[in-house]
């Protein structure tokens, strides 16, 4: 994650429950200042940072991130409010899912809530999807709708979407961990870094 980390915190809480089926082996960020890192430390989970600002080259940063991820041998990498585009260095080695605050394919990108409001849609929502090499283009795993209220601004709408995101992300990760899943005909491959 990159910021507040409320989605990551929801996963940490869920993983603490017996029967969830998954544990969080580490929480990582692209900047030292990400508030969510403190939440993870408080939960007794290992944290790491691969600061984007420390690298001149996007490929080098992706390679460093991939190497850090490899060390934890995660079955699944969750981009939970992670505001960077992941490159092939990560995606060829790890299965990654992302949470996005809109009903994709509408409103991809970093300003989804603002863009939906500006467009004037009455219904927006949240999407969990597999990450591919595009920006918010991977196969959809789950979606939930959120109604736009007449007096909404970006902050109020985003808060309501985030409470839906947290529930959906926890539900999807738990389901993947317990049952495995095929997404749009493609088997979600869990089981650690590819050799
Ligand atoms: C979420 O709305 C996520 O979809 C978006 O950024 C927000 C992160 O929130 N990419 P948090 O850091 O999990 O609280």
UniProtKB/TrEMBL annotation:
Domain Formyl transferase N-terminal: 2-173
CDD domains hit by this protein: FMT_core_GART
Residue numbers annotated as active site: 100 (proton donor)
Keyword line: Purine biosynthesis, Transferase
EC category name: transferase
Binding annotation for N(1)-(5-phospho-beta-D-ribosyl)glycinamide: 5-7
Residues bound to (6R)-10-formyltetrahydrofolate: 58, 83-86, 98
Similarity comment: Belongs to the GART family.
Cellular component aspect of the GO annotation: cytosol
Domain of life from the UniProt record: Bacteria
Reaction catalysed by this enzyme: N(1)-(5-phospho-beta-D-ribosyl)glycinamide + (6R)-10-formyltetrahydrofolate = N(2)-formyl-N(1)-(5-phospho-beta-D-ribosyl)glycinamide + (6S)-5,6,7,8-tetrahydrofolate + H(+)
Stated role: Catalyzes the transfer of a formyl group from 10-formyltetrahydrofolate to 5-phospho-ribosyl-glycinamide (GAR), producing 5-phospho-ribosyl-N-formylglycinamide (FGAR) and tetrahydrofolate.
Protein name: Phosphoribosylglycinamide formyltransferase
Annotated positions for site Raises pKa of active site His: 136
EC number: 2.1.2.2
InterPro entries found in the cross-reference section: Formyl_transf_N, Formyl_transf_N_sf, GART
GO BP term (any one): 'de novo' IMP biosynthetic process
Top-level taxonomy: Bacteria, Bacillati, Actinomycetota, Actinomycetes, Streptosporangiales
GO MF annotation list: phosphoribosylglycinamide formyltransferase activity
UniProt pathway: Purine metabolism; IMP biosynthesis via de novo pathway; N(2)-formyl-N(1)-(5-phospho-D-ribosyl)glycinamide from N(1)-(5-phospho-D-ribosyl)glycinamide (10-formyl THF route): step 1/1
